[in-house]
Design a protein that fits this description.
Elements: H1 12-16, E1 22-23, E2 26-27, E3 33-37, E4 43-48, E5 52-55, E6 58-61
Antiparallel strand pairs: 1-2, 3-4, 5-6
Length: 74
């Protein structure tokens, strides 16, 4: 399996950085995970905001092609 440090078939900067705020001079990026900071400065990771992950620049899904509650679609 090959690897890449850039998004394939899209503009990496536009997808992840355009329109995002900066923090201490660094650009923040969009990552797709839902994380909550609590009053006590702890973090709770709630999981993905969608059903896709970026593996080496290629978007993949963790959802089965046909849900098990629709066996007639298999």
């Amino acid at each position: 399996m090959g690897s890449t440090d850039r998004l394939l078939n899209a503009d990496h900067k536009k997808v992840y950085f355009d329109g995002m705020p900066t923090y201490k001079g660094m650009n923040l990026r969009r990552h797709g995970d839902i994380i909550q900071r609590t009053v006590g400065n702890y973090y709770i990771v709630h999981g993905r905001a969608d059903d896709t992950m970026n593996l080496g620049g290629i978007k993949v899904t963790t959802v089965p092609k046909f849900p098990s509650n629709f066996p007639f679609l298999k």
